[in-house]
Structures are given as structure tokens and as C-alpha cells.
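thought: fold this chain, then report.
action: predict
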Amino acid sequence: MNNDERTGISKRLSYVLRHRPDSIGVQLDDAGWVEIEQLLDGLALHGLSISLAMLTEVVETNPKQRFEFNSDRSLLRARQGHSIEVNLGYKPVVPPDVLFHGTPSASVESILASGLEKRRRHHVHMSTDRDLMLEVARRRGQPALLQISALRMHRIGHQFFVTENDVWLTDFVPPEFVRVAD
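observation:
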């Protein structure tokens, strides 16, 4: 399978597992998991016939590690980024001093005025990886990198979570904790 095919399958999985499982006739459980067999059957019935080996390759080679299998590899889910109701079961943790968030430059003024909102997603996404956040922002135009004073936020009561692929999550970042990164 070539890189374009892997990317196409990854995008379809993201859409199904984060936003619209009903688009292929499957249901996620409360924690966002779907049975592998049900997923492969649903994809095939809706125009994307892939094997378990292909699915495994996409999950294991995804550079952002967006998906995860359960321990016996019978279930799959997206690790974060859902716009549908799921409980991923992440426990609150103490964040590092600083986290980064990538955004289009056109959004910076509004964010500095009103903060970072989760919008249609369950959380605001951040990372310790500056380059990754710039790459994410580039998908939507001229990128800007924001620096979040995460530890200061935590100290006054904001909760943070971290996924297995090192994406940091919180519900809202007030404007006083956001600045444009150097």
C-alpha cells in the first residue's frame, strides 16, 4: 500500500471514528470503541473494502498515532478529536510548564481576546512539539504558533489530560494564558 492510500484510509477512519460512525452504519460504545469486524464490514458496504492487514498497517504507521487497538486487538478507536459524545477515560494529570497550539494566523487576534475554545470537539488540543503544532495549523492556511502557560492554568484548577500519542487536552484556555510563541 502506498502513502496516498494509507492517507486516504486514515482520513476515512478519522471521519468515521471521530465524527460520523453512522456514515457506514456502525455504532461506537461509550468509550469510542468499535468492533474491527463491524468496522471493516461497514467500510466495505460503503465503498472502502480493506483487509485487516491494511487496517493494521494504517493504524501502526500513522505518524500522528490517531488510532488505537484494545489489548486483544478486537476493537479500534480514535484517541482524540471527537465531535460526538465519547468518554475516553483519560485521567487528569499535571501538565508541563508550557504547551503549544497551532492555529491559522487569521484566528490569533480572536484567540488572544477570548481564549482557546474546544468548539465542536471535546477538548482543546495541544502538544509539547512545536513543529507538530505548526504542521497541524498549516492545513488551514498561514500557521501561527501559540504558547500556553499550562502549569499556571493547572495550579488554579484547570484540568489537563494526555493521550497515549502525547496530545494534551483541556476544556478551555483563558486568554491570559495564551501568547504568540517566539
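thought: worth noting. DSSP finds six helices and eleven strands in the chain.
final: C-alpha cells above.
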